[in-house]
Design goal:
3 helices; alpha+beta
Length: 157
Amino acid sequence: PSNQEIRDVYRFWSPVISRHFYTMDTAERDKLIKEYAAAWTYEGPVYRAAASAFQKGLLPVYRFWSPVGESHLYTIQESEKDTLIRDYPDYWIFEGVAFYAYPEGSQPAECLPVYRFWNVTDNSHFYTMDEGERDKMIREYPDIYVYEGVAFYAYGL
């Protein structure tokens, strides 16, 4: 894939609200770094995803914002997107397509899983491609983070 189509997805940590945030948008990344450094710590790129559905099998990964939970949710599942829009409009606000990735079962060999967790204490999600980080969450925080499995497949760094 061309470098124009595959781009970094950046991760931030907020010590203020104890949440992670992910974006492919460099303008959004730069704004958080410049204007919101007190609230968001830039952690750098964590994986790579597609900017468009340029290749067969790529699907949109949708982004939602919860003003109630002060967190974002990312899903590749159309049914989950539709349920959130229909049944939880006061909790989850649909923000559109964040990037494109592969659903489990149709990923190319060079793609890796991005794992998703549900934080039961604050109703937020956590995502990681790092298997060591995934294993640590499962091992050390099983009462806080519920492992939900593979969210989607993306390109490693």
